[in-house]
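Just curious: can you write whichever protein you like plus the matching structure tokens?

***
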Amino acid sequence: MDFQAYNKILICKDDIHNVLVDNVVIGYQFKIKYPSYRGAFLSCIEALSFEVDGQPIPASQVSFQLNGKDFLLSELSECFKEYWFVRDPATIFVRVFGGIAPGEHKIRVNMTHRVPYTGYFGQYLTLVSDVTETRMAQ
């Protein structure tokens, strides 16, 4: 089965925003949604990576924010009680001093995720969502 139609909702239409702390730009953030008609537990995300303007973002610089909590990408596989409802956007925060320059930027999100309700005889349907969109940075 191919659920590629849901990839169009992966990267939210919101702009990219720099994050300030005490008037210092410590990074930037953008939003993504779970690309399915059902939500899933974060532990169903097998791989998640990002690129901005063709440059990979190291996982060590990324925080995944959902349900009022921050997670490292390496922690997602252990989050079997943390549910990502399909209508709730997750905020991706990238820690980089100075943030991102104003203007257009290409964001690429690559996510490999298990569909939890397909686990028959130990085999799960695994989907790859790979989307690139242009968004404005403020």
